[in-house]
Design a protein that fits this description.
With 172 residues, the chain is an alpha+beta fold. The protein has six helices and five strands, in the order H-H-H-H-H-H-E-E-E-E-E. It has helices at residues 4-10, 13-24, 29-37, 58-73, 84-94, 101-111; strands at 119-122, 127-132, 142-146, 157-159, 167-171. A hairpin with a 4-residue loop joins strand 1 and strand 2. Helix 3 (29-37) crosses helix 4 and helix 4 (58-73) packs across helix 5 (84-94). The model has no long low-confidence stretch (mean pLDDT 94).
């Protein structure tokens, strides 16, 4: 864990980034807004300026969601990293107020309940990796079945819309 002085220094990195970006002189204002606001949260709980809602550029709000998702999946302490499914579930259930609802809903819709890369267990006991989502049926992605006796290049791909197997769990 960071000490309080380390945390405060870390929370200043968006401001330092803005100063560097401004010195470059060729970056569009929208990019500088993203650099400065990518840790601001819709409810004002972010940093460095505790901006709220419409005070945060829409692009920065998108990047804040992606950044939060990435941090949940790729924690500095790998034991605390979430699976993509766990990260998405946590963001929706526990962090919903921190993000613009329309943008978060679009993110979840496009990523799917089981984002690509999620390892899952099917009701028939097989293990699979989600390779793409079905936006109309978020609980039924396309998966590649894992079988150690089959080369990955020949692994069967199943569309869970067409083969109605249920996902029983997400595996880390």
């Amino acid at each position: 864990p960071l000490s309080n002085p380390e945390l405060l220094l870390y929370q200043m990195h968006p401001s330092y980034g803005v100063k560097i970006a401004q010195r470059i002189g060729t970056l569009p204002a929208a990019v500088i807004d993203i650099i400065g606001q990518h840790h601001e949260m819709n409810d004002g709980s972010g940093y460095p300026h505790q901006l709220k809602g419409a005070q945060i550029s829409q692009l920065a709000q998108i990047v804040a969601i992606v950044n939060s998702y990435d941090n949940l999946c790729n924690s500095m302490n790998s034991a605390k990293s979430c699976s993509p499914f766990e990260a998405m579930s946590y963001m929706y259930a526990k962090q919903k107020g921190r993000f613009d609802q329309k943008i978060l809903s679009l993110f979840i819709t496009h990523m799917g309940v089981y984002p690509p890369g999620t390892v899952i267990k099917l009701e028939d006991g097989r293990i699979a990796t989600v390779i793409s989502t079905n936006p109309q049926t978020l609980l039924r992605p396309n998966v590649m079945i894992y079988d150690p006796s089959v080369p990955a290049t020949e692994a069967p791909i199943i569309n869970l819309v067409e083969e109605p197997l249920k996902i029983i769990e997400s595996i880390r």
